[in-house]
Amino acid sequence: MLRILHIDASARPGLAGTDEHGSHSRRLTRRFVDRWLSARTQDAVTYRDIGQKPPSFINHDWIAASFTPVERRLPWMKQALAESDQLVDELIAADVLVIGAPLYNFGMPAALKAWVDQVVRPGRTVDVNESRPTDPYVPRLADRPRHAVILAARGGVGFGPGGPMAHMNHLEPNLITALEFIGITRFHRIAIEGQEIGGEVLARSIDEGLQHVDRLVDELQAVLQTRPQRQPA
């Protein structure tokens, strides 16, 4: 059995093509998960709709607790990290991380940034080796292969790699940097563009995006079905 962590970060609750003002990124993630489960009904999906229920922002108590050794944490520190612990546990368990996110003002939605801040944790997802001052960070999620699928939606066009607006896209690059930092290194990117333009430009991008999702599901399932099985804990 494989485990998928499905995260939707769009502020739009509905699906484009079905609901008025629906989300294109949610449409992509729904397509991905539905196609995945149609072929692998035994796999498990954990769903987080952070667009509608955002994670908490980190604060002073979170920082103080996170940087205090486990054996010295007071009860209030454990409580301050309870939400983060749950989000981290979900991420560690996942074989495939599926994130649906729109490009908001050239970057990721605040809810997604809040999730990133909750899961990049010393002692949980990254260690610090003080004996290596110039390169002290040791990613803890490099223990086994994990795939991250980033399914984005952009109002404009040309924001993808090599595009004329790529230098203004800080969504996928930022997210990839954060996930690589904790040890996730296998990335897959698909995006729908042109919502602000509409018409044929948007329609073509939607069709291509959905087709790319279908192909990616087939490719990932083929890869993951042939990998060595996890050893029992």
Automatic annotation (TrEMBL):
Family: Belongs to the azoreductase type 1 family.
Positions contributing to FMN binding: 10, 23-25
All residue ranges annotated as the Flavodoxin-like fold domain in the record: 3-214
Cofactor mode of binding and number, as noted: Binds 1 FMN per subunit.
Catalysed reactions, as listed in the record: N,N-dimethyl-1,4-phenylenediamine + anthranilate + 2 NAD(+) = 2-(4-dimethylaminophenyl)diazenylbenzoate + 2 NADH + 2 H(+); 2 a quinone + NADH + H(+) = 2 a 1,4-benzosemiquinone + NAD(+)
Record's subunit section: Homodimer.
Name of the featured protein: FMN dependent NADH:quinone oxidoreductase
Reported function: Also exhibits azoreductase activity. Catalyzes the reductive cleavage of the azo bond in aromatic azo compounds to the corresponding amines. Quinone reductase that provides resistance to thiol-specific stress caused by electrophilic quinones.
Keywords, in A-Z order: Flavoprotein, FMN, NAD, Oxidoreductase
EC nos: 1.6.5.-, 1.7.1.17
One Pfam family hit: Flavodoxin_2
Cofactors: FMN
